[in-house]
Amino acid sequence: MIDIGRFKANKDIDFEGWLDARRGGVTATQVAKAATPSGFEEAVAEIHSPTQIPDNPYMKFGRDQEGWIGLSLMKFGVLPNEWLIAHAENSRYLATPDGLSIDHEIISEVKTTGKDWGEKIPIQYRRQVQWQMFVTGVDKCVFAWMLRVDSVGGFVPGWFEPKVTEIDRDDKMIDELSGVADRLLDVMEGGF
């Protein structure tokens, strides 16, 4: 079980507090992006000059779908999650998985996409999930995605239910991501 003190802020309860808590460390999204040389440069630029990403129809579709997709994963024993969670040993390693099982043994992640990924989940999302598993201490993630289809007036789901796969923990990838995270923390502390 994840110790109660590791639950730092809840996005639904206090969005601004959740954003503030994220600024104190490195998140799964940041670490996944920074895993490549060009992505690292983008992440560093974002640390030095944070910018708000303007809302767009793709983001709105994803937000609109995330709730019901998350609820559909309850059959895997995973409930929707909005809590920012800190790692047990380094509280600056952070993640907000989209779902967490009651026994804290499984997480979930939900995405929407303009094309079906089949059996090959994009690497940036696999990195994001590995960081989330590392931070939470779990060994498995239920990963779900919904196809986004153009329709009159916007987007609609492309399927009746999301596609789902399980991703197992990859300690080799996690070791690489930990190095990336430490480099990002150095930047935050003015060492880069």
Structural topology:
Layout: E1 7-10, H1 15-23, H2 28-33, H3 37-48, H4 57-72, E2 78-80, E3 83-86, E4 94-95, E5 99-101, E6 106-113, H5 123-136, E7 140-151, E8 154-157, E9 163-168, H6 171-188
Parallel strand pairs: 6-7
Antiparallel strand pairs: 1-3, 2-5, 3-4, 5-6, 7-8, 7-9
Structural write-up:
The protein has helices spanning 15-23, 28-33, 37-48, 57-72, 123-136, 171-188, and strands spanning 7-10, 78-80, 83-86, 94-95, 99-101, 106-113, 140-151, 154-157, 163-168. With 192 residues, the protein is α+β, with helices and mostly antiparallel strands. The strands form two sheets. Strands 2, 5, 6, 7, 8 and 9 form a six-stranded mixed sheet that branches. A three-stranded antiparallel sheet has the order 1-3-4. Strand 3 and strand 4 (94-95) form a beta hairpin. Helix 3 (37-48) runs parallel beside helix 6 (171-188) and helix 5 (123-136) packs across helix 6. The termini are far apart. The model has no long low-confidence stretch (mean pLDDT 94).
